[in-house]
Specification:
Oligomer: single chain
Largest sheet: 2 strands, antiparallel
Low-confidence stretches: 189-194
Mean pLDDT: 90
Distance between the termini: 41 Å
């Protein structure tokens, strides 16, 4: 009975409490940050001479495909070599992720969870790695606060699965706290010099 109760509490937290507070918090933040978002959007529209929002298809919970929103950082979509100085700065402080508040409100994402990856990776996950799709993907996650793109795919996947297997309110708070500290230190940048290894390239060689 204690084990059943613990499992029940975990499921209740994930399906009810977590989603409720995610959407409530995202809605409040979107209202409070709306002036800033409008200013950023205007600057980007003038900088790139195109829509400031970049929309990319990603894989979410249950392997459902959804549209992920980000602020534009590249002159040409999907071409990392076209990232501008402004784009690099935005990534260094993770401002480009702010439009994902809309994804949280829509129920596509959570504040904390495995980062949503490319559709093209779907055929390369092993049975264990597929567990990352049992929960909503997150704006930040356990892998993000433990190295992000600086760690290899094996470690990133391991951290994602560790989170899925042990998800709890306390762990979410811990990850959010680490995320805030990392942002203050500006070490959460997703931009790195050189070509980032795709998961499909890594998985096809193992």
């Amino acid at each position: 009975m204690p084990i059943f109760s613990e499992m029940h509490r975990g499921k209740f937290y994930i399906s009810v409490i977590k989603q409720f507070f995610d959407r409530l918090t995202a809605s409040v933040l979107l209202i409070l940050l709306s002036p800033l978002l409008l200013i950023i959007g205007l600057i980007l529209a003038l900088h790139f001479l195109k829509t400031p929002i970049f929309i990319h298809k990603r894989v979410g919970k249950g392997e459902r495909i959804f549209s992920l929103f980000k602020f534009r950082t590249m002159k040409t979509d999907f071409d990392e070599s076209s990232i501008t100085s402004l784009g690099k700065f935005m990534r260094s402080i993770s401002v480009d992720e702010l439009p994902q508040l809309l994804n949280v409100i829509k129920g596509d994402m959570s504040f904390v969870g495995p980062r949503p990856l490319l559709i093209e990776y779907l055929d390369f996950y092993n049975t264990e790695e597929k567990k990352r799709h049992e929960v909503l993907p997150g704006i930040t996650g356990w892998a993000q606060v433990n190295g992000r793109n600086a760690i290899d795919w094996e470690k990133r996947m391991s951290l994602d699965i560790e989170y899925v297997d042990n998800i709890s309110f306390g762990w979410d708070i811990k990850i959010l706290g680490k995320t805030i500290m990392a942002l203050l230190r500006r070490d959460m940048t997703s931009y790195q010099k050189g070509k980032t290894i795709k998961f499909s390239d890594y998985a096809s060689k193992r």
